Amino acid sequence: HNDNHTKNLSSSLSKSMKCITHHWVKIELLAVKRQHWKKQIGTLLLGGALYQASHKTNSKHSRIHNKCILHVAGGMQNIPAMRLYNKFGFMLSPDGLFQKPNK
């Protein structure tokens, strides 16, 4: 009986994890070396990542694009990153994160 319970729990957890991973897109780091700044590389990278995230689908859910949150490494001192995020419609929230309003 205990083995069946463990198998059922494991199966349920596995299904839940698949569902969770299909609802989140995490980009750990997006950076451009200083010598390549002002060449629109950051715009291409962030635009491509947001496009991929907004068109990600799975069998149970349609497009996943409910909420985007960005953290600026270097905080308010990282003016180039803040400008890039603003270009894509993100706004600075009171907690210091950039958030894109739901459409």
Automatic annotation (TrEMBL):
This is N-acetyltransferase domain-containing protein. Pfam families: Acetyltransf_1. Residues 22-90 form the N-acetyltransferase domain. GO terms for molecular function: acyltransferase activity, transferring groups other than amino-acyl groups. InterPro entries: Acyl_CoA_acyltransferase, GNAT_dom. It comes from Ditylum brightwellii.
